[in-house]
Automatic annotation (TrEMBL):
Organism expressing this protein natively: Pseudomonas quercus
Chief location of this protein within or outside the cell: membrane
Protein name: Sodium/proline symporter
InterPro entries the UniProt entry points to: Na/Glc_symporter_sf, Na/Pro_symporter, Na/solute_symporter, Na/solute_symporter_CS, Sodium:Solute_Symporter
Residues that span the membrane, as ranges: 6-26, 68-90, 127-152, 164-186, 193-212, 232-249, 275-296, 325-350, 371-391, 403-422, 429-447, 459-479
Localization terms from the record: Cell inner membrane; Cell membrane
Alphabetized UniProt keyword annotations: Amino-acid transport, Cell inner membrane, Cell membrane, Ion transport, Membrane, Sodium, Sodium transport, Symport, Transmembrane, Transmembrane helix, Transport
Name of the gene: putP
Entry membrane topology: Multi-pass membrane protein
Catalytic activity: L-proline(in) + Na(+)(in) = L-proline(out) + Na(+)(out)
Cross-referenced CDD domains: SLC5sbd_PutP
Record carries keyword Metal-binding: no
Keyword Cell inner membrane: yes
Length: 502
């Protein structure tokens, strides 16, 4: 791997820029609020692009195009479900959560918000929700590290074990240094790079195949059913793919962007930018996988690496069709997708350990400087655990993401939505929702892996988890009571949201 390699130079320049942004953010980080939420001063553009980039991890350029390449447009239901879910999340949750977290003791994390929203002085809500974050986010972090390792392995021929550490190193560095501001500012750059790559690459693939008509002819020669969105699916399968959209309501790294916005008005602007960005990116990644079928059918001698691992399709197409300098920039988009989401996940885990365990149970009198450094130490700790989980070279990005996505969507999604819409929700209802959602996802996944319960594997575990969590919240909240103080605070926050929205 020579230092004169154009792709390597592009990667090094890109990583250096990210680290420089981290150093600039270091200078702007004065306390734990800055490190965790950027002092709640993100504008509309940064909120939009940071929310998008933190959402679209390595699966956007590896897992999803690989699934489209193998199964055709029938996998596109995932993209449709994500667009619907993201839009509803912006409309129903974003602005309300921004205000409710401010009124709930200026909460910095989701566990912090749950504890303050329901006056839970026992610490049980905080501990349970923080544990859910640590379990599922460690799995999620592992998926990002796998994607980064695959990138360095494929691009530079590094052994998987070495690529694992190289891929994670830069992300850990700027997250450690700059915290939330570094993550948000770098997300803005990374989101722009991802959009550029996903608009340019499918256009070049189509042209290299001979145009749209020729590409369609080659795709049809491989399998005419690739054009059929209903291919090999059942109504249950379609619902399961669309159900990915439910996950948005419970993703802590996305919800943190809403909490960090400087105002409700900024969120309205951010929603429009973020949805436009998301639709273009998902359309581009589906096009890469779909037209990649035609390209490799026309050039079968180049299809070996993609046949062995379909998740490498974007990497292989970029390496084959572009000048090495341009390829370096485009492949940096995968690194951007990995780094943007991984950094957010590391920071949320660090926040849970620092704010919800260390500060509240171990060192209530800790100084702001001490808390910031503890947060940095926790970034390293979580990263090391995630690297250990990702050490299996047979790991698949999409399967790891789907499990963590379902876990958060079912555990936190119903609690977040109902907590900002219904004043009658109680702390016992919230606790029941979190526990029911998380345990349902885990149990459904484990049982579905057994031959006797194979039918359960046909249903994405987020569906039963989300439904049962909603039922648990409603039932337990009806059977228990909440204080007038909690109801009055909810009413005040709701009134403030309505006033700021207009």
């Amino acid at each position: 791997m020579s230092l004169s390699n154009p792709t390597l130079i592009s990667f090094l320049v890109y990583i250096s820029v990210m680290l420089l942004i981290g150093l600039l953010a270091w200078r702007a980080t004065r306390n734990l609020s800055d490190y965790i939420l950027g002092g709640r001063r993100l504008g509309g553009v940064v909120t939009a692009l940071s929310a998008g980039a933190s959402d679209m991890s390595g699966w956007l350029l590896m897992g999803l195009p690989g699934a489209i390449y193998v199964s055709g447009l029938s996998e596109g239901w995932i993209a449709l479900g994500l667009v619907i879910g993201a839009y509803l999340n912006w409309r129903l949750v974003a602005g309300r959560l921004r205000i409710h977290t401010e009124y709930s003791g200026d909460a910095l994390t989701l566990p912090d918000y749950f504890a303050a929203r329901f006056n839970d002085h026992s610490g049980l809500l905080r501990v349970v929700s923080a544990l859910v974050i640590l379990v599922f986010f460690t799995i999620y972090c592992a998926s990002g590290i796998v994607a980064g390792a695959r990138l360095f392995e494929s691009t530079f021929g590094l052994p998987y074990e070495t690529a694992l550490w190289v891929g994670a190193g830069a992300t850990i560095a700027y997250t450690f240094i700059g915290g939330f501001l570094a993550v948000s500012w770098t997300d803005t750059v990374q989101a722009s790079l991802m959009l550029f790559a996903l608009i340019l690459t499918p256009i070049v693939v189509v042209l290299a195949t001979g145009g749209v008509d020729t590409a369609f002819m080659h795709i049809n020669a491989v399998n005419p059913a690739s054009f059929d969105m209903l291919r090999g699916t059942t109504w249950l399968g379609i619902v399961s793919l669309l159900a990915w959209g439910l996950g948005y309501f419970g993703q802590p790294h996305i919800l943190a962007r809403f909490m960090a916005a400087d105002s409700v008005k900024s969120i309205t602007k951010a929603r429009r930018i973020s949805m436009a960005w998301m639709i273009l990116c998902l359309g581009g990644t589906c096009a890469v996988g779909f037209f990649g079928i035609g390209y490799f059918q026309a050039n079968p001698e180049m299809a070996g690496a993609v046949t062995a691992n379909p998740e490498r399709i974007f990497i292989e197409i970029t390496r084959i069709l572009f000048n090495p300098w341009v390829a370096g920039v485009l492949l940096s988009a995968i690194l951007a997708a990995v780094m943007s989401t991984l950094s957010c996940q590391l920071l949320v885990c660090s926040s849970a350990l620092t704010e919800d365990f260390y500060r509240h149970f171990l060192r209530k009198s800790a100084s702001q400087r001490e808390l910031v450094w503890v947060g940095r130490a926790m970034v390293l700790l979580v990263a090391l655990v995630a690297i250990a989980l990702a050490s299996d070279p047979d790991s698949r990005v999409l399967s790891l993401v789907s499990y963590a996505w379902a876990g958060f969507g079912a555990a936190f999604g119903p609690v977040v939505i109902i907590s900002v819409l219904w004043k009658g929700m109680t702390r016992y209802g919230a606790l029941a929702g979190i526990v029911t959602g998380a345990t349902t996802v885990v149990a459904w996944k484990m049982l579905g892996a057994r031959e006797a319960y194979a039918f359960m594997a046909q249903v994405y575990e987020i569906i039963p988890g989300f439904i049962l969590a909603c039922a648990a919240i409603a039932l337990v909240s009806r059977l228990t009571h909440t204080s007038e103080t909690v109801k009055q605070r909810f009413a005040a926050a709701d009134q403030a949201w309505r006033a700021q929205r207009s």
